[in-house]
Each structure stands twice: as structure tokens, then as C-alpha cells.
UniProtKB/TrEMBL annotation:
Keywords from the named record: Transferase
Protein name listed in UniProt: GNAT family N-acetyltransferase
PROSITE patterns given in the database record: GNAT
Ranges annotated as spanning the membrane: none
Residue ranges annotated for the N-acetyltransferase domain, each copy included: 5-144
Molecular function terms from GO: acyltransferase activity, transferring groups other than amino-acyl groups
Length: 146
């Protein structure tokens, strides 16, 4: 079952668990030194799934400069390649459609998952750029209908 919560609704345990999987993946595994926790966490809708006492998938959704964005998409290492990431993105798009109907979506995707997002109707725009020392590409999806 997917948990969908605003920041103020998170328990301290949930907050710890979601920060743990994010730091473990983006800072430790990917060796990217950057400010993982940021002000966007305060205004995000947090979407996550537990297996036992461990978060196995996580994403956050928030409004930014006239559009909706999402990020910090992560599946636990031992659950990658199982389709969980696709199910997470489907849930993210469902939440966006429910809470932000008729809003355009813009994301900054790591280039190695560009093809993954294209399967969900995202289109790449612009040139590849470095964000926190990692190649990214801007991708857009207009007015989703699920």
C-alpha cells in the first residue's frame, strides 16, 4: 500500500526512514556530495511504500515556478529491476492528476533514466546539464489524463 503524506503528516520514524533511503542512494551509492534535505521537503507530498519496517520506494511531488515537479525517485537496491520503480511513477502521476489536475509536469531526470520516463509520455527538452555533478535532462509532460 502506498503512503501519501504532506510533510506535517509524517511521523518522526517515517521522516527518518525516507531520509535514510534517499541519503543511502543519492549520496552514498551515487557518491554525490550535496544538500540532500532541502526546503522543498517542507512543501512536498511524500509518496512511499514500506515492506516490513523498511521503505522500499519513495518520491516527492511539489509545485515549482508554475508547474508541478517530482523527484528523489528511489527504489531500494534489493528491489530494483522488479518493476517497483514503474509502479512508483504510476502512483506519482496518479497523485499529480488527483491533486493538481491539468497542470504541466517538468522534471530534471538523470540521463541514464531518460528512456524510462519516455515510457510515461515525458519528452526531453534542451541540452544535458550537470546537476550535483551528475548529467541530467529536462523532461516535460503536458496535462496528464489517467
Amino acid at each position: 500500500m502506498w503512503e501519501i503524506k504532506e510533510f506535517s503528516e509524517l511521523t518522526t520514524q517515517e521522516l527518518f526512514d525516507l531520509m535514510y533511503i534517499r541519503v543511502k542512494t543519492f549520496v552514498v551509492e551515487q557518491e554525490r556530495i550535496y544538500q540532500e534535505v532541502d526546503d522543498n521537503d517542507l512543501t512536498s507530498i511524500h509518496i512511499f511504500k514500506y515492506e516490513g519496517k523498511k521503505i522500499i520506494a519513495y518520491a516527492r511531488v511539489f509545485r515549482e515556478d508554475g508547474h508541478i515537479t517530482f523527484g528523489r525517485i528511489v527504489a531500494a537496491k534489493d528491489h530494483r529491476g522488479t518493476g517497483l520503480g514503474a509502479k512508483l511513477v504510476e502512483e506519482v502521476l496518479r497523485v499529480i492528476n488527483d491533486k493538481f489536475p491539468d497542470q504541466n509536469i517538468e522534471i530534471e531526470a538523470q540521463t541514464y533514466v531518460e528512456g524510462f520516463y519516455k515510457k510515461f509520455g515525458f519528452k526531453s527538452v534542451g541540452d544535458v546539464f550537470l546537476f550535483n555533478h551528475t548529467p541530467h535532462i529536462k523532461m516535460i509532460k503536458n496535462h496528464i489524463i489517467i
